[in-house]
Design a protein that fits this description.
It contains 25 helices and eight strands. The protein has 554 residues and is of the alpha/beta class. The chain is globular, with a radius of gyration of 26 Å.
């Protein structure tokens, strides 16, 4: 037992090292989501209101009109208070929860597989080394918080089947998950209802009285979300991303398929039965759902965006985990409940995890597949333990070869992530804003206006790196509100033009925007004028310009 605790401590130290080393610098760059959340925390810390002038939002933060889940922003407040407004402070809560998730998966695995002594340690080290969990822990992504909250809540839920007092802690943790990650609002209720049906006898064995504390906790935590869903705007984010929200191209395609169908020659109404929006939505949901069970997605290709998958061409899981996942999954599906374990919660987890992601427009999105966090590592650990039980004359050689290969492949991943990704994918996470704003801050007093090439929510980066006084931002956002009432937009940077102090965010046009008293910030969304006077550049290793600061003074 003592050796097990020592090994767990070493795994936690390893996980901490991989998640905290150069946290403010790797990954290179900083996403607009991170900048926006950190500035919201800074604004609350300074004024008690967010950048839109709203006091202590409960269910969501308006951000740049995408209405972010609030928990991570609130967790950033003490971090920003202690370390200041910087990348490290913004990412610190996510990194802490990433380390705590290793402990949570250890406890949960031990509860599900109580007779497998070393299995919890294997699941813990697999998560500690997991590429996508490391990547999520090192960026301020809301989804990463659930990698701790959900498995720990499930662990306490399973304990609560014998001791109902534990249910209140599950209610708190899963309730907080609803404030951490929008997809959890779909996934956790489905999962909780499934477990309620599965373990209904144990749950109701002591009557409703023993369940009252948990029920009251659920009501208290759910009430603000329900009220906001009915009367507020937080549902907007989900509505914008839903698979059912088809654009004009999709709708025209449905009409064309109906019109040109050979069946239309018999009767125009016949093809309309087959080519309807509902069938397109169902088909797309099915395609999206299956995409999250794609082996290339998990083990070789990864996601379709460098912002969240960080290294395109690499899976979200280490390649050597593939045989362990397949073997473990095969054994669990073959016998989901045994005298040594009850893995039915894992099967429910597996079937439901892809639903929130599948409901959105695109598949293969790592950040939307967050409901799978910790699941594959548990299944792989089970597969590894059962593999170790196989005894023959080749087993030791195969094990040695496997461990050697795992070490090599893991080493290649870390070399790629910590050293090469900065050079290979410099455009990831809006790289270049820190140095660009630093350059601007030294010369902006010499200009009447700083005109920023619109795109990627530049106002969030300007406010974050300049530490713009919150009252200044709040005054500007009040003007934006008035403009958006006249001309509604889905996201802030879709406005034609908007200002934050002396900063004007708009599409740069030449020669109309040429002005000797204006400083220009270019980020690739317009042509660069040939007669410009370059003051600062951010380039890729190949010489491609990512960002540039210039004027027209000679």
């Amino acid at each position: 037992m003592k050796i097990g605790k020592v090994l767990l401590a070493l795994i936690l130290i390893l996980g901490l090292f991989l998640r905290f080393t150069y946290l403010g610098r790797i990954p290179a760059g900083f996403s607009p989501d991170e900048a926006s959340q950190a500035y919201s925390a800074y604004s609350l810390l300074q004024t008690g209101k967010d950048e839109w002038g709203l006091g202590w939002p409960i269910s969501s933060f308006k951000s740049f009109l995408d209405y972010k889940a609030p928990l991570q922003t609130y967790l950033m407040i003490p971090s920003v208070a202690i370390f200041g407004l910087n990348e490290f402070a913004a990412r610190l809560p996510s990194a802490i929860f990433g380390v705590l998730a290793i402990l949570a998966i250890y406890l949960l695995t031990g509860k599900i597989f109580p007779n497998y002594k070393h299995l919890p340690l294997y699941s813990a080290i697999f998560l500690a080394l997991s590429p996508w969990h490391i990547q999520f822990s090192r960026t301020a992504l809301e989804v990463n918080l659930t990698s701790f909250l959900f498995p720990l809540g499930l662990y306490l839920y399973l304990r609560g089947l014998k001791d109902h007092r534990q249910f209140i802690y599950t209610a708190i943790l899963w309730g907080l998950s609803l404030y951490a990650y929008h997809s959890a609002k779909i996934y956790i209720p489905l999962f909780a209802l499934s477990l309620l049906f599965l373990y209904r006898r144990q749950i109701f064995s002591k009557g409703l009285k023993s369940l009252l504390p948990a029920l009251l906790t659920i009501i208290i935590l759910l009430s603000p979300l329900v009220i906001d869903s009915v009367f507020g705007n937080s549902a907007k984010r989900g509505g914008d991303l839903l698979v059912s929200k088809l654009d004009t191209v999709n709708l025209k395609q449905i009409d064309d398929q109906s019109f040109y169908s050979p069946l239309a020659k018999i009767n125009p109404k016949i093809p309309r039965l087959f080519h309807r929006k509902i069938f397109t939505v169902i088909s797309r949901f099915g395609e999206n759902y299956l995409s999250y069970f794609s082996l290339p997605f998990w083990f070789t290709e990864g996601g379709r965006e460098i912002t969240y998958s960080v290294i395109p061409g690499r899976g979200l899981l280490l390649f050597w985990m593939l045989p362990l996942v397949l073997f473990g999954l095969f054994l669990l599906l073959k016998k989901i409940k045994d005298e040594d374990y009850d893995a039915r919660p894992l099967l429910i987890w597996l079937l439901l995890a892809a639903i929130p992601a599948a409901l959105t427009k695109e598949g293969y999105r790592p950040n939307r597949a967050g409901s799978f966090l910790c699941l594959w590592e548990i299944i792989a650990a089970f597969g590894f333990v059962r593999f170790l039980e196989i005894k023959n004359k080749y087993s030791k050689k195969i094990l040695g070869l496997f461990i050697g290969l795992a070490i090599i492949l893991t080493g290649f991943y870390f070399e790629d992530y910590f050293f090469n990704s900065v050079v290979t994918y410099p455009k990831a996470l809006s790289y270049g804003w820190r140095d660009t704003v630093n350059a601007i801050s030294k010369i902006q007093r010499n200009y009447d206006t700083v005109m920023v090439d619109k795109g990627t929510q530049g106002q969030s980066f300007i406010a974050f790196y300049l530490k713009t006084p919150p009252p200044v931002f709040q005054a500007a956002s009040a003007d934006w509100e008035k403009e958006m009432q006249k001309n509604p937009v889905d996201y802030l940077d879709q406005m034609g033009k908007y200002r934050l102090g002396k900063y004007s965010f708009e599409k740069l046009d030449w020669p109309e925007d040429k002005n000797l008293e204006t400083l220009y910030v270019w980020q690739g969304n317009s042509l660069l004028p040939s007669e410009r006077h370059t003051l600062h550049q951010v380039t890729t290793p190949t010489g491609e310009i990512i960002m540039e600061v210039f004027d027209f003074k000679q």
